[in-house]
C-alpha cells in the first residue's frame, strides 16, 4: 500500500530569519526584508530577565506590523518557567506557526498539541520543532510521526547545531564533517513524515564565502532552506535554496509531456531520450508551484 506523506501544501522556506523579540530596531526592519519566513525569538536570543518584556513587545508589534513573510514565534520549552506564558502570547499574536525548541520526544509535541486543542487553537496554526539535542536526533522519526499523526499540525523541523555542538562536544569545523551524518538523519526523519526541514544557522555573519559554502552543502543534502541570524544572509539563502531557470524549464516540459493525449495513462515516457516517470511529474509539479510563488513574490516587491 502506498502511504501518502505529503500532507501540506508546497511552501517556500529558503530563508528563515530569526529576530530577537525584544530588539525593537531589528523588529522594525523585518517588513522590508526578503526572507521567506521570520522567526520571532522568545527563547535563546532573549535573556531570562527580559522574557516578559519581549513577549509584550512582540504581541504589540505583530498586532500592527504583520510581515508578509511566513510568521513563526519560537517559544521557550513547555516545561520551562517561561513556556506556558510564551505559548499564551504566541496564540494571542496569531502567527502561522509556533516553533518548539529542544524537542526530544513525541511527548514534547503531544503536550503542546493537547494544550492547543484545549484552547481551541485555529486549525491552520502549525507547529515547527527544533531538533538540537542528542535525544532529539535519535528520536527524530518518532517525533516527526507524532506530529503528523495527531492533527497534522507539525510541518517543519529546524536543526539547531549550536545546541547540538554544545551537547555533544563536536566542534564547529569548516565542512561540518562530523555533523553531516546527523544532518542527514534529521533530514530522513523529516521527509519520512512529509515535513519540511531547515538547515542550522551560520554564526559568522560577516563571512559570506563561508556562508555560501554552507548553503551549497545544505541544499545538496536536500534541505529546504536555512535558518538565518542576519539580514545580510537573506539574498544568498534565497539564491542557493531557490530554483535555477533550467530546473523550472525542465519541470514545465515534464508537465507538458504528461498532459499530451498520447501520454494519458502512461506511467513512463521517453522525453528527448530520457526516461521520465510519474514520480518525476510529482517533483516537477512541486518545482512549478515553487516557481509560481517566487514569481508572485517578485511581483509584490
Ligand atoms: C548577531 C546580531 C546580534 C548582530 O547584530 P548587530 O551588531 O546589530 O549587527 P549589524 O550592526 O550588522 O546590524 C545591521 C542592521 O541590521 C539589523 N539586524 C541585525 N540582525 C537582524 C535580524 N536578525 N533581523 C532584523 N534586523 C537585524 C540591526 O538592527 C542593524 O540595524 P540598525 O540597528 O537599524 O542599525 C544580530 O544580527 C542578531 O541578534 N541576530 C539574531 C540572533 C537570534 O535571533 N538568535 C537566535 C537564533 S540562533 C539559534 O536559534 C541557534 C539554534 O537554537 C541553535 O542551537 O543552533
Ligand atoms: Mg538552540
From TrEMBL:
UniProt keyword Transport present: no
Keywords: Hydrolase, Lyase, Magnesium, Metal-binding
Binding site for substrate: 74, 132
Enzyme class: hydrolase
One of the record's GO molecular function terms: hydrolase activity
BP-aspect Gene Ontology terms: regulation of cobalamin metabolic process
EC number assigned by the record: 3.1.2.30
Domain HpcH/HpaI aldolase/citrate lyase residues, every copy: 14-231
Sites where the protein binds Mg(2+): 132, 163
Classification via SUPFAM superfamilies: Phosphoenolpyruvate/pyruvate domain (SSF51621)
Superkingdom of origin organism: Bacteria
Cofactor(s) it depends on: Mg(2+)
InterPro entries hit by this protein: Aldolase/citrate-lyase_domain, Citramalyl-CoA_lyase, Citrate_lyase_beta/mcl1/mcl2, Pyrv/PenolPyrv_kinase-like_dom, Pyrv_kinase-like_dom_sf
Record carries keyword Zinc: no
Pfam families reported for this sequence: HpcH_HpaI
Record-stated family: Belongs to the HpcH/HpaI aldolase family.
Name of the protein in question: (3S)-malyl-CoA thioesterase
Annotated organism of origin: Sinorhizobium medicae
Designated gene of the protein: mcl
